[in-house]
diacylglycerol O-acyltransferase
Amino acid sequence: MTDAERGTREAMSKVDTAWLRMERPTNRMMITGILMFAGRLDPQDFKRLLQERFLAFRRFRQRAGIGVNGAWWETDADFDIDWHVRTAALPGAGDKAELERFVSELASEPLDRSKPLWQFHVVENYLATDGGRGSVLVARIHHCYADGLALVQVLLSLTDTAPQPEAHAELARTWLKRDRGTVLERLLEPMQGGLQKVFTVGEKTWGKVAQMLANPGVAAEIAHEGSEITRELAIALTLSDDPATALKGKLGVVKRVAWAEPLPLEEVKLLGKALGCTVNDVLLACAAGAIRGYLRDLGEDVDGLTIRATVPVNLRPLEHAKKLGNHFGLVFLDLPIGEPNPLRRLERVAACMRELKGRRQAIVAFGLLAALGMGPAVLQQPALELFSRKATAVATNVPGPQQPLYLSGVEVRELMFWVPQTGSIGLGLSILSYNGRVHFGVIGDNRRVRDPDAIVQRFGAEFEKLLLIPLMEDWAEDITPGDAAATLARYA
């Protein structure tokens, strides 16, 4: 570390400041991820790898500071790699249930604010579901460093496409696209100045934004007379609150995580093609069906109900994700848990996604986060609560490389991650594809989701229902929800 770096401060971006301010005991703003290995990962080898690749990002030697007038980054003069990399052993059989409990505990614990806000835990005795033994790497990184897509790619930058480390550079060529201009340039081209308008709202008319947050009725008036950007903001502010279910309510300080057995990605793609929708549509429809079944088993009447999930939308080209920082917006996606017909449920999810793609909702959310970061901290909590009431879950889908990866020469068998929930949202849904398989995970507040395994176990069953429909129908004709209902009634 140079003398110039020692003790110096660097201003944190407004969006990253907003995420730092969101930290609450009931919702830790950490992105938690796990990498499961086919063999043993040596902790000392891993530390050397971190020194070479992870700490090449100067930001990860810096800790976050926050004051009345904003937040900043400053280099940690006492940085200790041994504090940031811990070893652990699972009790008992060291199986999936024990690993889920261990990761749940870590997802509930805060990171130390006096140090850079990240930590790795090397678990050395995991028993995989197929009976094999191997290590697991659990990563915890605060959201203020970067968004989920960026941090997943940072973690994957530690890996190689072959057991030999010299193959490291190959991943960028086989997975990421070429660098095509700055993030801002790529954003402004399709938005035609829309992003600039959002920042105008944030910087020059904060009083109007604060008025809209304090009194959503004002937003209804603006919706009739504002620009496209301010109309989108007004629409978001005037959305109705999500319906009351067991998933909504006061949160505790304990999180619980679970993940499902992976699905074959090729089957998901073929199903989406057969039913005229995207892979993302299929997976989110399966998640909606799993939530429906979970709530019905709790005795809740969900028929006719639609809940919303906030879905992060990447606002930069994939090849820029490793440049850190938070560069994403949010959209509200309808999850029709009250629809009993799985094909109609898929149609409704796909229709909602198509509608959102033609709107500016994500870019507005990005601008609003910047406005919250530059505005008074006292206004951020009521603003978060206002938006939290409009959704029940956070749903994230990150595309990963479709080839086996190696870390310190050890093959990565499976990947999973969970993003934090904001405000009073108590459920997170995560989808990640890797090496030809799709991984689905849930993180839930213990008061709201006491058994996340009960949701993830239904995910595969919902996919099988959708898969059965085209297998039993005539592809020469359109497959209708009525056909689907008849097929399921006969064969499911």
In short: The domain at 183-397+423-491 is CATH 3.30.559.30 (Chloramphenicol Acetyltransferase). Residues 174-206, 222-226 have pLDDT under 50 and may be disordered.
